Amino acid sequence: MSKSRREIPIVSHPIIETHFHLDMLKNLSRTEIVEKSLHHNIEKMITISTNPNNLDEVITISETFPQIYCTQGLHPHEGKEWNQDVRAHVIRNLSNIKNKKIVAVGEIGLDYYYSKSPHDEQIVAFEEQLQIAIDFNLPVVIHSRDADEDTISTLKKYSPQMKRKGVIHSFTSGLDLARFALEEGFFLGFNGIITFKNAENVRDALRITPLERILLETDSPFLTPDPYRGVENAPYYLPFVAQKVADVKEVTLETILKTTYQNAHNLFHF
């Protein structure tokens, strides 16, 4: 194996994958992905709901694999699909006592980079899903891209009512949103982007984030970290993310592994 494709480390302390999309991974079977992740000491994984069609699927996945948990929510790209039927679907799933492995409402938020849904419809979906999280006392998994101002203004309205807050996942936003989220008690999620050469802004956000507010994720199948860029991402690449976080924060890898593991438990209540 070439140096650029060095072996994936098997870390000494378990890692929790706080954000990936198992239903979107194609290179290996779901069982193979889970088994390979467990081999690399990825102990628990959260597969994320994004659209009306996978609300039930992520629950089924979580029930199939003991190590996998899930969320309920619509991605901002799907904001135009948010309606009372979908809202009722989410609430019904959250209300079902059999669905014990749902740990958050998400992936919700705002995306003005692609604007696949009108901004006003994204905001309505975001606000209504924040209220659902409040009603069920669940944390939220937030996507925010090129929408810092509206993300902040929306969270200002709902954060005071949220007992468990949540995470701004795949953090690539400005330092104003980072500081606001941290002051409000949110976590920031970091993934393979921090290994990219042109992502100094993300490393700057990581530098101001206390260790106790950092979560590790892959957002796979997207955003594969160096040295595996160009191939489909998966939870078993998390050791590269963890090592880069340690390097940027100038602490040991063991410190990052132990702290982020506890952080994930603190937020998601596994």
Would you kindly provide a written description of the structure presented here, covering whatever features stand out?
The protein is an alpha/beta fold and 270 residues long. It has one domain: TIM Barrel, CATH 3.20.20. 40% of the residues lie in helices and 16% in strands. It is built from nine helices and eight strands. It has an eight-stranded parallel β-sheet with strand order 1-2-3-4-5-6-7-8.
Structural class: alpha/beta
How much is the average pLDDT?
97
Number of helices: 9
The CATH H-level homologous superfamily: Metal-dependent hydrolases
* Uncertain stretches of 5 or more adjacent residues: none
The side-by-side strand order for the widest beta sheet comes to: 1-2-3-4-5-6-7-8
Assigned CATH class? Alpha Beta
Proportion of beta-strand residues? 15-25%
Rg calc: 17 Å
According to DSSP, the number of beta strands is 8
**Any idea of the CATH topology?**
TIM Barrel
The main sheet comes to: 8 strands, parallel
Distance between the termini: 37 Å
| Secondary-structure element string | EHEHEHEHEHEHEHEHH
What is the topology?
Elements: E1 15-20, H1 30-39, E2 42-47, H2 55-64, E3 68-72, H3 84-95, E4 102-111, H4 119-136, E5 140-145, H5 148-158, E6 166-168, H6 175-184, E7 187-190, H7 200-207, E8 214-216, H8 238-249, H9 253-268
Parallel strand pairs: 1-2, 2-3, 3-4, 4-5, 5-6, 6-7, 7-8
Helix pairs in contact: 3-4, 5-6, 8-9
